[in-house]
């Protein structure tokens, strides 16, 4: 039986990633410009990864099967984005965000990774604001918050019902800046067909050009898969039909571990969705039942 190694740093959970950052081997700016990285998917995960890697100095090739990265399914996110900034003065903290996230995930999350997420949450909001994401503000002009998901504090930053769209446009603008600099090479209308491995390491991908049908090969020193979840799992939902998890399936056949093809809020959604119920209604009903 294969033992899965998540390569989580050693030490107490509150110090794991701080110690790791203090001791990690760095890449010099002179070497970064010699390293190519492929990013498959240009939603919030892939778009921000591509923009950040290019900002650091790496050469990035970004792929999406849509006409534009703006068509990524991240645009459908509505609720908001959480951060432990405690702007409302209601006792929020990194630990509380960490605890609420682990509890909300039915204790199935990797706790060290969730703690790291809670640590960087405040910086993510600052970066989004700097990129021009129009988060809602109160009458005094300060960033507004609302309580979301049944938590006891107000930590959710939002932009009406368009949070995903506005965040995606922010990531897209950051990508465009790097495209103009020549650090990102964008491949629209390209579908990943297979992963290329050399000596057990991912070194490139095979793609199909959806405009002319040509099969192309692209090499790199590393490959990032940020292609989204399996939206077709549900009978009725707002998930895009293009979210068919094909890229994840290709790398799974090449040896990558496969888990959580779609992060749905609760298993009850899965069962009831096949009975022609919408995912959103199921989620609201579940929250209502818990509050009663």
Q: What key phrases describe this protein's structure?
A:
FAD/NAD(P)-binding domain; three-stranded antiparallel sheet; 35% helix; 9 helices; globular
- Classify the beta-strand content into a percent band: 15-25%
Work out the number of β strands: 9
Q: Whole-number radius of gyration? A: 20 Å
Structural class determined from secondary elements: alpha/beta
Which second-level CATH architecture of the domain at 29-76 and 163-227 applies? 3-Layer(bba) Sandwich
CATH class of the domain at 29-76 and 163-227: Alpha Beta
> How far apart lie the N and C ends?
44 Å
Write up what this structure looks like.
This protein is α/β, with parallel strands linked by helices and 292 residues long. Among the domains are: 29-76 and 163-227, FAD/NAD(P)-binding domain (3-Layer(bba) Sandwich); 79-160, no CATH class. 35% of the residues lie in helices and 15% in strands. Helix 3 runs parallel beside helix 6, helix 4 (94-104) packs across helix 5 and helix 8 (267-273) packs across helix 9 (279-291). The longest helix is centred in the middle third of the chain and has 20 residues, at 111-130. It is globular. Residues 264-292 have low confidence and may be disordered.
Architecture blueprint of SSEs:
Layout: H1 16-23, H2 29-32, E1 36-40, H3 44-56, E2 59-63, E3 81-82, H4 94-104, H5 111-130, E4 156-157, H6 163-181, E5 184-187, E6 190-198, E7 201-209, E8 215-219, E9 222-225, H7 246-253, H8 267-273, H9 279-291
Parallel strand pairs: 1-2, 1-9, 2-5
Antiparallel strand pairs: 3-4, 6-7, 7-8
Helix pairs in contact: 3-6, 4-5, 8-9
């Amino acid at each position: 039986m294969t033992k899965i190694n998540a390569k989580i740093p050693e030490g107490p959970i509150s110090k794991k990633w701080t110690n790791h950052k203090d001791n990690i081997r760095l890449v010099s700016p002179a070497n970064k410009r010699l390293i190519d990285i492929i990013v498959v998917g240009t939603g919030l995960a892939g778009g921000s990864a591509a923009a950040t890697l290019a900002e650091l100095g790496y050469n990035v090739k970004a792929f999406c099967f849509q006409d534009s990265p703006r068509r990524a399914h991240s645009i459908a996110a509505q609720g908001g984005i959480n951060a432990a900034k405690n702007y409302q003065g209601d006792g929020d903290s990194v630990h509380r965000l960490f605890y609420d996230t682990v509890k909300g995930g039915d204790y199935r999350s990797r706790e060290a990774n969730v703690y790291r997420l809670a640590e960087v949450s405040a910086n993510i909001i600052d970066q989004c604001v700097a990129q021009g994401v129009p988060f809602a503000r109160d009458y005094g002009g300060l960033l507004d918050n609302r309580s979301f998901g049944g938590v006891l504090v107000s930590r959710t930053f939002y932009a009406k019902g368009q949070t995903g769209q506005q965040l995606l446009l922010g990531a897209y603008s950051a990508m465009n800046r790097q495209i103009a600099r020549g650090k990102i090479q964008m491949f629209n209308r390209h579908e990943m067909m297979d992963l290329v491995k050399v000596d057990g390491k991912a070194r490139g991908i095979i793609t199909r050009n959806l405009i002319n049908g040509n099969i192309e090969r692209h090499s790199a020193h590393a490959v990032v898969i940020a292609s989204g979840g399996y939206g077709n799992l549900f009978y009725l939902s707002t998930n895009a039909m293009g979210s068919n998890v094909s890229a994840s399936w290709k790398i799974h056949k090449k040896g990558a571990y496969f888990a959580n093809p779609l992060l749905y809020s609760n298993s009850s959604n899965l069962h009831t969705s096949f009975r022609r119920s919408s995912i959103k209604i199921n989620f609201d009903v579940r929250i209502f039942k818990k509050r009663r």
